Amino acid sequence: MSRKYQGLIVLNTKSLEGSVDDLVTSVSKEFEAEGASLEKITQLGRRQFAYNSRHLESGHYVNYIFQGAAGTVSKIQERLRLNGHVHLQHFQRLA
Questions:
Q1: What does the pLDDT look like over 58-70, one tens digit per residue?
Q2: Of the candidates 34, 50, 31, which has an alpha carbon nearest to the alpha carbon of residue 89?
Q3: What is the structure's pLDDT at 44?
Q4: Which residues are 92's β-sheet partners?
Q5: How many folded domains does the chain comprise?
Q6: 56: number of Cβ within 10 Å
Q7: In sequence order, what DSSP letters do the residues of 12-47 get, joined into one string?
Q8: How far apart are CA 44 and CA 19, in angstroms?
Q9: Residue 70: which CATH number?
Q10: In this structure, are residues 65 and 82 in contact, taking their beta carbons and an 8 Å threshold?
Q11: Which strand ranges, in their side-by-side order, compose the sheet holding 37-53?
């Protein structure tokens, strides 16, 4: 059974080689590799943090709307933990 989810990903672009669009595309490919079907990708831009988080002052926020099976989110989280450019990730199920 496919469910609809929203994932907010904060990207660390401090030591990025290439463009932010390439990084957003590579993260979306990681979603698809775990069986998620992406519906919408919204780049929210660079935002300042309220306080420094792991020596970062800001991050590039991207919102992913996707569908997947019940275990898809945990697989995506495990995969994104290995990506050095993913600073924070938050997922929630949409009604």
A1: 999 999 999 999 8
A2: 31
A3: 98
A4: 6
A5: 1
A6: 14
A7: --TT--S-HHHHHHHHHHHHHHTT-EEEEEEEEEEE
A8: 15
A9: 3.30.70.60
A10: no
A11: 37-53, 56-68, 3-11, 86-93
Closest CA to 8 of 88, 95, 94, 93: 88
Q: Note the Cα 66 to chain centre separation in Å.
A: 11
In Å, what is the CA distance from 74 to each residue of 20, 31, 32, 62?
A: 25, 11, 14, 18
Q: Which domain holds residue 58?
A: 3-93
Task: Read off the tokens for 93.
Answer: 């199920």
Residue keyed to tokens 């979603």: 31
Token digits of residue 80: 């994104």
**Prediction pTM value:** 0.92
CB 63 within 8 A of CB 44: yes
